[in-house]
Amino acid sequence: MAFVPDSPFDQDDFTDFINTVNDSLGSLEFEIRRAQDEDNGDKILALTNTNEQTIAQVATGYSPLELEYFKHLLDAIVTADDELYCISSTAAVNEASKLKNKENKSLQLTKAGAEDLLSRFVQDKWLIKSKKGALSLSTRTLLELQSFLKEAYEEQMQECTLCMEIITKGQRCNVAACAARLHQHCAKTYFANMNNPTCPSCRSPWDGKTLIGLAPNVEAPHTIRRR
Amino acid sequence: MSDRRRRIVIDDEDDYGSKGSSQKSNGKRGAPSSSQSHSSGSQKRVMRDVDDDYSDQDGHAPKTIRVTTVGSKVHDILPEDFERFVKDTVRLAIFSSHSEAATVKRDDIKALLGTHTRLYDTVFERAQERLRKVFGMEMAELTTKGRSGKNEEKGTKTYILRNTLPLDLLGSESLDWDGQLEDQGLLMVILSFIMVREGVIFESHLKEHFRRLKLTEEGSDIDKKMDMFMKRRYIEKSKMEYLDDSGEKIEMEVRWGARARAEIPEENVVRFIEEIFGPEAPKTLRESIVKASNIKIKATRDNDVDGADAAENGAPGSSSNAIHL
């Protein structure tokens, strides 16, 4: 369900309002977080569970095995080579056979079972599936697992140079050594009045064509390569 | 309800108020801000923010609160643990509402309490207060009504979350129901047909109504929708065998399901029908609906449109229901 303001409203008042609501929610380990969709820049509010130590069965409706599979996929997506932040559905299904439990025994997740589960992850908006079958992280996952991702994948997770939020899709600086990354919507804002865009960090020319995340209408690699 | 039990609730009101500030300034956490003048017996009651590292609090031994449950049995429990139980119950209720069944079972809540299952009633009650105050919702028990519909309603020890906010607020156009409105409309139509026949309708008759509403045309998914409503316990079907002039017959009867009974006040259905009729409604419409349905709500609509809801869900003005921002 989305909140759709039908008339212009005062941003500051709105922020105050959200903060007030969050004061109440905080005592129950919930929080309303704000973000912008990495694909289309839509502004989003989400009620999130801040108790991340238990990405619990009860919180998500998934069984421990299913959660294990999700974590596995999360890992493959986040660590994907060349800052792609995605894997192909084929690769995701193949990963299912590699699931091991604590005693290092293979877990029973069939190919068909994995396919079903994948569509549930997509349906429940934990993952996004592109038309070409590439799986990437949804806004929901980025919001709800924010702290987890930043802690567990300190090296791999990057911040947008403008909004300072996690970025897995957008533009990056042509200079390989430069850390500048911008969401598409942030780049639009930042370069709006520049005739010759330059990198906000290293000042080299910015063509906006070097990407972080997979380019649209491109298939993800069929095998998983980690950085 | 014992006096002592009620007082715990009052104590915590203070605690909410100080929560925002005490959370930010970690150093002062644990100051017995709400304990002054409230002592129960020899125990001083201290409500603090829950935190795992509380026990090294100024080097003092943890203080317990005393909870009196039904039958005047006394349980000493750490305030942190008690708060944790309440919090977990609220969280369980919220998470469960997103599952397909949308229900939470009493046993699941009890499982959270570990060895303290005797505190169930107190924890449940406190969780309800938090749900009403923070979310504008409460847990309502689903009931069985028995096949004939005449049996007494029995509790099922299963709860769903239901709204406690005034209806007018929900109708606000600020909410985008994400395409769910179509299903809700259809469900209200079905519930209306059932209600005005005193709570039960033959499925064949219902289908006849669908046909007239052009809901059964080619490519219609009305059967699927009916199945979904059944799965979600908004409607129930049962087999009915009866004799008429042409011999023995079998019909399926459709009734309101447990979830509809818990979630949807009959008043809302009356209002829905009135809305469908619009300004051309006959003046006696409300009276006719109430009479046909054989339900006990006011046959005349007065100015206080929220009156009926209030009776159902707790008065809007009462502290448990109003949102204090």
TrEMBL record, chain A:
Keywords: DNA damage, DNA recombination, DNA repair, Metal-binding, Nucleus, Transferase, Ubl conjugation pathway, Zinc, Zinc-finger
Purpose: Acts in a DNA repair pathway for removal of UV-induced DNA damage that is distinct from classical nucleotide excision repair and in repair of ionizing radiation damage. Functions in homologous recombination repair of DNA double strand breaks and in recovery of stalled replication forks.
Gene3D superfamilies cross-referenced by the UniProt entry: 3.90.1150.220, Winged helix-like DNA-binding domain superfamily/Winged helix DNA-binding domain, Zinc/RING finger domain, C3HC4 (zinc finger)
RING-type domain span: 160-203
GO biological process terms, semicolon-separated: double-strand break repair via homologous recombination
Top enzyme class: transferase
Record's subunit section: Component of the Smc5-Smc6 complex.
Source domain of life: Eukaryota
Homology family: Belongs to the NSE1 family.
Catalytic activity field: S-ubiquitinyl-[E2 ubiquitin-conjugating enzyme]-L-cysteine + [acceptor protein]-L-lysine = [E2 ubiquitin-conjugating enzyme]-L-cysteine + N(6)-ubiquitinyl-[acceptor protein]-L-lysine
Pfam families associated with the record: SMC_Nse1, zf-RING-like
Molecular functions (GO terms): ubiquitin protein ligase activity; zinc ion binding
Protein name as annotated: Non-structural maintenance of chromosomes element 1 homolog
The EC number(s) this enzyme carries: 2.3.2.27
Subcellular locations according to the entry: Nucleus
UniProtKB/TrEMBL annotation, chain B:
Listed InterPro entries: MAGE (IPR037445), MAGE_WH1 (IPR041898), MAGE_WH2 (IPR041899), MHD_dom (IPR002190)
Domain of life: Eukaryota
Disordered: region residues: 1-63, 305-325
GO biological process, one term: DNA repair
MAGE domain sequence ranges: 82-278
Composition-biased stretches (Low complexity): 18-43
Signal peptide as annotated in the record: none
Compositional bias segments (type: Polar residues): 316-325
Entry-linked Pfam families: MAGE
Annotated SMART domains: MAGE
GO cellular component, one term: nucleus
PROSITE patterns: MAGE (PS50838)
Name of the protein this chain belongs to: MAGE domain-containing protein
Taxonomic lineage from the root: Eukaryota, Fungi, Fungi incertae sedis, Mucoromycota, Mortierellomycotina
